[in-house]
Amino acid sequence: MKNIETTLFYKDNFPEEYVITNEEAVALIDYIKEGATEFKIDGDTYENKDLSSISFSDINYKGEMQSIAIQFSNE
Question: Is the pTM for the entire model greater than 0.85?
Answer without folding.
Answer: yes
